[in-house]
Amino acid sequence: MSRVLVVTETSRSDGEFRRPRVRARYAAHVSRYRRAVAAAVSRLATGDDVTLLAGRELVDPETLPAGVDLRRYDEESFKAESDPLAELGSKLISAWWPRREAEPAL
Known about the structure:
Layout: E1 3-7, H1 20-45, E2 49-54, E3 69-72, H2 82-96
Parallel strand pairs: 1-2, 2-3
């Protein structure tokens, strides 16, 4: 048995989405993301101790299997180190997604 830390994206502020079309698509994204997180954590929890670090809106605690330790970004002490972690998050996301010049349709 091992310990697994699952880290989700941070959730977006509603104020960032002023256009109704974008807000509606984000709501659909959150719903799909919650299901994906629950499925991934359920697979991992069968053989490992799982800790899930997530934003409040990106996880539904009722869909998580028993024994998963849920931690939320806003309750953790990383706030004191938010700048280095924000920079690391930006680096990870930029490495994950294609550059804007490579995918102009994005």
